[in-house]
Amino acid sequence: MSKDKSRLEPGAANARLRELREIIDTHNYRYYVLDEPSIPDAEYDRLMQELLQIEAQHPDLVTIDSPSQRVGAPPRSDLPPVRHAVPMLSILTETDTTEEAVLNFDARIRRELEIESDNELVQYSAEVKFDGLAINLRYENGVLVQAATRGNGEVGEDVTPNVRTIRAIPLRIDQQIPVLEVRGEVIMRRADFERMNDQQRESGGKIFVNPRNAASGFLRQLNSQITAQRPLTFYAYGIGEVVGFDIGNTHSELLDKLHALNFPVFDKRVISRGVDGLMQFYREIGKCRDDLPFDIDGIVYKVDKFSQQRQLGFRSREPRWAIAHKYPAQEQLTELLDVEFNVGRTGAVTPTAKLKPVFVGGVTISSATLHNIDEVERLGVQIGDTVIVRRAGDVIPQIVQIVPEKRPANARPIVFPAQCPVCSSPVERVEGEAVMRCTGGLFCPAQLKETLLHFKHRRAMDIEGLGDKLAEQLVDQKLVTSVADLYRLDIDTLANLERMATKSAQNLLDALEKSKQTTLPRFLFGLAIREVGEATAMALANYFGDLDVIMAADFETLQRVPDVGPVVAAHVVDFFATEHNRDVIQQLREAGVTWPKIAVRNRDEMPLKDKIYVLTGTLETMSRDQAKERLQLLGAKVSGSVSKKTSCVVAGPGAGSKLADAQALGVEVIDEQAFLERLGKLEA
DNA sequence: TTACCTCGAGCTCA
DNA sequence: CTCGAGGTAA
User: Fold this and answer.
1) What 3-state DSSP class applies to A241?
2) Among positive and negative, which fits the CA dihedral A460, A461, A464, A467?
3) CB A648 within 8 A of CB A611
4) Who has the most CB within 10 Å: A69, A307, A393, A459?
């Protein structure tokens, strides 16, 4: 693709225009008709920008059928067409991520409104630009009679039955208004989208690339019963034809009126005199963009006063009084350069995509997990493919789709290794599981390394100073072959390692020494028994009270522990049945690892059973983790947020909203002093 | 997954 | 001055 922005010779320009029109038409078709775009919006925008630019330089080459002359593609034939009473415009070309574009916009508005004085500021309204599907809702005499998509702006598709299933959309409005067309966006919340895709994955259904596609797909679904089951929602932001309803004098007033009529209007919006307030709003929303429940593209700024909007008017296909200020794209195209296979603590062999670095949603992404074989197959991805990388809401970048037409001739399939890439042991796939596992166990350096790191974890044995690099050296130089070996390291061996000298070595030895005084739950957690995390380790420790009892417990006995089922029980039995594991435990004990006895009490005897505690602010005499541990030993649950069910909030200095919540809900609040006294009394 | 910050300590060169 | 560890935020 030519990135050359300089002026082309007419011949070359014409050739490129033809090419661009064809590409854009294809993508329009995929996007609007098939609901299966194969490139991200950002890429589409670039193509469109290039087309517009060349056409601007060569006005004589603009053809009537150029994609620049219309919005979108013709409506899909299997839904009835609807001609809009008032065209549905979009804010397409004037989009930019720079503040400069906004300043230019303001300057233009001022020029066209003939505002000369610097003291006179234009009143704007700013609202989020939803990443969904624009829709027109027509109410006649207060009743929803028709809902239509934007289509090409003039003619859209009738999606009334589907829209009626969306709960956020009123089917009737209280006031008797002869005609009211409300415009807004149908969207799907991110959380709903994730949940739905998870379900689809389980049931083998179609997986959607992003919430907008999903929303679009379901809105245009022919069977409205299917739409009814989908979590679509709606926000209003404008109007079409109106008869017999006072829309007020400004855009923001209009939104208030729509809200009063029970239309959902997103509450994050502002009115600003001049551009400074707009920029501020842009930055504020930018900061919390990922916390919003749905995807947005950017912010829309509109001249607020209708009188001024009328004065400014329209340019062929867009209002002259509005502009979209976009955020960095959450989806980008890049190339899959290679796939690496990483071996985790449990031996799981995970394919990781090495990508040509791209800037997505504010950071540079160069690698992303491909999860497992199923995912690789679902994507149909090969090395060399061009892929769409998405990073939104959550933080983890995903490869959501490949662009099949961009596959190079030398693309190679992704081959899962039959042998562990680290230790060459055979790799197995357990029946019914998606993951492949290295069978090398702790003989596999990769697994051993991860096991060491788990053992030293802050919530396990808490060995400070044992990091990634050190674990790697210890394993590679065969200085450690099990967690027990850690306690046999001496200062000379350690001091000879890279980036280690006597000081660091001694610090590590001190940390190891300190770690020997531990607790049973920490120790159990540190052993890295499959499916035994912090909570399960705690449950086992509290139930049995003693390691030897746990080791001797059989499959049935284990399942009497709360939250332990057959799967966990089997893993625990397995672990302790393995001779090597028993050896290691023996060695650890011999090295001096000990923990205080836990008085076994069953749940009913625990003084704080069924109580839910919440910690907030800073505790001065102990860490949050310690406080949590002690509470749990007394049978209490420790939760992160305050609700009706919370029994007590422990508030240290600097407590914020949780304290306020507690007071609002009338939950007991105690300070650290009172907390310590209570602990002391109950632990006795 | 990346970016950024802090801390302590090792390493290098004067 | 650089590196590794550790934490945290986006």
Assistant:
1) strand
2) negative
3) yes
4) A393
Half-sphere exposure of A318 (CA within 13 A, CB side): 16
User: Residue A367: which nucleotide is closest by CA–C1'?
Assistant: B1
- For A299, the token pair is 């912010």
- Report d(CA A41, CA A92) in Å as an integer: 12
Nearest to A520 by CA among A578, A618, A579, A589: A589
Q: Which nucleotides on strand C sit less than 7 A from a protein beta carbon?
A: 3-7, 10
A567 touches strand B (CB under 7 A): no
State the pLDDT at residue A150: 86
A285, A268 in Cβ contact below 8 A? yes
The answer to whether A298 and A326 are in contact (CB under 8 A) is: yes
Residue A364 has which token pair? 């540079």
pLDDT at A496: 83
Question: Backbone phi, then psi, for A33, in 5-degree steps?
Answer: -95, -45
Give chain A's length. Answer: 684
pLDDT reported for residue A72:
47
Counting as low any pLDDT under 50, the low residues of chain A are 1-5, 72-75, 93-94
What's residue A77's pLDDT?
52
Q: Which burial class, exposed, middle or buried, applies to A564 when counting CB atoms under 10 A from its CB (0-12, 13-18, 19+)?
A: buried
A21 CA to C2 C1' in angstroms comes to 53
What Å value separates CA A548 and C1' B1? 41
Q: Which of A129, A302, A305, A449 is catalytic?
A: A129
Distance (Å) of CA A491 to CA A472, A494, A500, A517? 18, 5, 10, 21
Q: What residue is closest to C10 (Cα–C1')?
A: A395
Q: For A500-540, give the DSSP string.
A: --HHHHHHHHHHHHHHTB--HHHHHHHTT-TT--HHHHHHH
CA A287 from centroid of its chain's CA atoms? 15
Residue with tokens 């909030």: A649
Nucleotide nearest to A362 (CA to C1'): C10
pLDDT given for residue A3 in this prediction: 41
Q: What is the pLDDT of residue A5?
A: 46
Buried b (16+ CB within 10 A) or exposed e, A588-606: beeeebebeebeebeeeeb
Catalytic, A3? Answer no
| DSSP code string of A55-78 | HHH-GGG--TT-GGGSSS-PPPTT
**HSE value, Cβ hemisphere, 13 Å, CA-based, for A509:** 15
In this complex, the nucleotide whose C1' atom is nearest to the CA atom of residue A465 is C5
- DSSP characters over A103-166: HHHHHHHHHHTT---TT-PPEEEEEEEESSEEEEEEEETTEEEEEEE-TTSSEEEB-HHHHHT-
Q: Encode burial over A244-272: b for 16+ CB neighbours within 10 A, e otherwise.
A: ebeeeebbbbbbebbeebebebbeebbeb
Rg of chain A on CA atoms, in Å: 31
Euclidean distance between the first and the last CA atom of chain A, given in angstroms as a whole number: 75
Strands of the A612-616 sheet, one edge to the other: A637-639, A612-616, A648-651, A668-670
**C-alpha of A330 from chain center:** 11
Q: Give the E-state strand segments of A370-487 in sequence order.
A: 382-383, 386-390, 398-402, 412-413, 427-429, 436-438
| Helix and strand numbers, DSSP H then E, in chain A | 24, 26
CA–CA separation, A95 and A565 (whole Å): 55
